[in-house]
Specification:
Distance between the termini: 29 Å
Number of strands: 10
Strand content: over 45%
Structural class: mainly beta
Helix content: 10-25%
Number of domains: 1
Strand order of the largest sheet: 4-1-7-8-9
Largest sheet: 5 strands, mixed
Number of helices: 1
Order of helices and strands: HEEEEEEEEEE
Oligomer: single chain
Shape: globular
Length: 136
């Protein structure tokens, strides 16, 4: 029995997951807050959970007004390096407003990885502690 079909399963799963995220962004629901993600190249920042519940699309969060915890995963790659780190972090904010657009902005400085939550005017309203990173 050949192992080739078994090796294709993880690769095919990754392709299907990435293709699901490649479609157009849905229209924002005006009764909820919209949180977009911004990472530094070549990193990828993905939305994971809101208040401990998995979300369907890793490109953004939508939340009801009020307080929420947003969990994200950063796939951090060093330029010219084949090594990848998977970093997990979260931000908690208590005053999400309906119809407001927020951006979770990742930044890296040396070994420190963090993200700031900015409101629609670019003002920082919350930030993560350091991310917890493990080799990918």
């Amino acid at each position: 029995m050949s192992l080739k079909p078994l090796l294709l399963i993880p690769a095919l799963s990754a392709v299907l997951l990435l293709s699901a995220c490649a479609g157009p962004m849905p229209k924002a629901d005006p009764s909820e807050a919209w949180i977009g993600l911004q990472e530094e190249a070549p990193n990828d920042l993905m939305a994971e959970r809101v208040d401990g519940k998995n979300i369907n699309d890793g490109r953004y969060f939508e939340v009801k007004p009020g307080a929420h915890r947003l969990d994200v995963t950063l796939f951090e790659e060093e330029a010219g390096d084949d090594n990848q780190q998977d970093c997990r972090g979260h931000v908690t904010y208590g005053n999400f407003k309906a119809g407001e657009h927020y951006t979770l902005v990742e930044s890296s400085l040396g070994t420190t990885v963090r993200a700031e939550l900015k409101d629609g005017h670019g003002k920082e309203v919350a930030q993560t502690d350091d991310f917890s990173c493990m080799p990918g």
